[in-house]
Fold:
Amino acid sequence: MDVIWENSLGVFLLVTVVLGGGAAWLAGRALALKWRPFWYALIYMLPLTGAVRFIHYALFNGTLLSMHYFLVDAAVLVLSVSLGYRLMRVKQMTTQYRWLYERSGPFSWRDRQAPRAASEQ
Structure:
C-alpha cells in the first residue's frame, strides 16, 4: 500500500491530513472571508505542498523530490482547501445576504423564494 504513503499510514495521516489539511482548511476559509477567487487557493497550495513534503523528508526520512508523493499530498490539500473555501462561502452568502439566499445543503445555496401575496394563495 505504498501508493499513497511512503513511511506509514500514521505519518501520512499526521503530516499530510492533519497538519497540511488543517492549514489548507484554514487557508480556504481565509480566502473566502476576503472574497478572493478560488484559483488563489490552488496557487497557495503549491508552497504548502512543498512544506508538507519537506516535513516528510526532514522529520520522517521521506522522499523530498518525488512527483508521485507531491501529487498525492497536493490532492489531499486541494480537497481540504476546497472544503474550507466552499463551506465558508455558503455561510457568507446565506448570512450576509439572507434576504436573497437560503442554504440548500452543506455545499450550496439557492435563491430565496419570495413570499406569496395573500391574493395568490
